[in-house]
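Quick question: what would this complex look like in 3D?
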Amino acid sequence: MSDTSRTYAEQLDREDVLASYKAEFYLKEGTIYMDGNSLGLLSKRAEQSLLAALDSWRTYGIDGWTEGEHPWFYYAEKLGALMAPLVGAGDGEVVVTGSTTTNLHQLVATFYHPEGKRTKILADELTFPSDIYALQSQIRLHGLDPQVHLIQVKSRDGRTLNEDDIIAAMSDEVALVLLPSVLYRSGQLLDIERLSAAARERNILIGFDLCHSIGAVSHELSRWGVDFAVWCNYKYLNAGPGSVAGLYVNRRHFGRTPALAGWFSSNKDVQFDMSHQLTPAEHAGAYQIGTPHILSAAPLMGSLSMFVEAGIDRLRAKSLRMTQYLMDLVESELSGMGFVIGNPMEHHRRGGHVCLIHEEAVRICKALKDNGVVPDFRAPDVIRLAPIPLYTSFQDIWDMVQRLKAIMTEKQYERYEKKRGVVA
Ligand SMILES: *Cc1c(COP(=O)(O)O)cnc(C)c1O
């Protein structure tokens, strides 16, 4: 039996080695923020690094490209090097550029070469829509029909994917596989190592979308032999709305010419020769296109310093303790109220959020907001709750479950309209 007292939550907070980071974030008094898997909160360090970038502009003007503490000309590569430990990458394998979707276009355009029998892309039916739109358009750019050339592995239960089904679909017609690391609704963490090994055995290139695992889960992309990966930095990494994204390219692919080239794809030593013959950078930096978005990348610099300090393994350990604690409370406090836990229960199959399924999810989310809890709703019936290791306490989780319990026992949700907002 799990201990459901508030005293126990207080004890867990006292034992938490990461508890001090909470004070570094801008949290709204009285509000429990459980939506860090959609948009992470602002920290003082992220604010500082953004102000520092503005200060460089104020102080140096054009010379900010080469002067100051973090010259802008090397900013994307410097951030990439800082991020490398979060994904298990070696030197030069990560760069901070573009957005998830544009990076996906860049890397699929570069690595997808339909040839002979191998013309198909393998994905899944549960992934985020933007990824599917990008794959469909890349297939169309080759003059092919996505109905035929995009295979989407089916889910057996509508929530999770089975690795055996994915591997069974890796036929000799498949040129490239793209999968999410963590499914955005159910929070299932796929076995990236196993899937990558299976793809390599079959001479298929494999890429992952790490949007829902970066900063929440540790990765060993190079050791696992992943070919490429993309992710955003505004979810668990707290770098701000629309912040510049990241990409990974395994070093065995270094030296290729990017499919979508621009002058920032260049080897930096010769970029300002202004030659019309591109000499691409011999690392992941080659997949940049144009001038880096310094002001949208700058908050990541400060935010990342916390991840470097805290270490992804300690963050993951706390995240697992928190999601486990939340599930324990759901089972003991909310039983018989119609909730189903939709994420896998095993540690190694779960990302950073808990997926609660309820037929009244829309209205419950509205009631939670009015009770000072920021949840996240995904149509038609999913409530995502993400306790964030850097700024959520065990008492927050306890308080949130109590508020949710009151909403259910008092049927508060019945006061709301059963209709989702435009952004939900
Ligand atoms: C959040 C998310 C995106 C968003 O892509 P953007 O280009 O940043 O808008 C894409 N894919 C997945 C899996 C996501 O979770």
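Answer marked as accepted. Residues 48-309 form a domain with the Aspartate Aminotransferase; domain 2 fold (CATH 3.40.640.10).
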